[in-house]
């Protein structure tokens, strides 16, 4: 019985991981099936994105952080989402700084030794499909930004350089986000 519950929980986790993006893609397809979007050409991204005609493909996300932060001070990461299209686009705010607090681990943070930094925040369960208020609308040719303090969700305290990569794209739909480095002094 316990193994069945664990298996069922794992299946639900996988489902919830992709459901937000699928819901967003379905909404985009209903709104405009002929939209052509140029691929993301952000210089800090190593890969060229695959062809995607959804509204989410029009969104470019850039992450920024200060180069150096004093130990014990907030480590703020800023997310800026730009809509490169001529039409309004949206993304799911779940697993992004737009939630204004950590409700899941959506960053992969590595210390100077290449070891993962431990996530110490909550792990929220989500209802599916995401309700309408879970989406952030980005006006045509517009931008939206949000900041979050990494120390509120991750154990970042020792001096050193930390590499921060975003890993919440399966929920939010924000892909090819650059990585940043922060040095704690």
UniProtKB/TrEMBL annotation:
Q: Which domain of life is it from?
A: Bacteria
One GO term (biological process): proteolysis
PROSITE patterns, A to Z: PROKAR_LIPOPROTEIN (PS51257)
On whether Hydrolase is a keyword of this UniProt record, the answer is yes
What are this entry's molecular-function GO terms?
peptidase activity
Signal peptide residue numbers: 1-19
Reply yes or no: does the keyword Hydrolase apply: yes
Q: Which UniProt keywords apply?
A: Hydrolase, Protease, Signal
Q: What is this protein called?
A: Protease
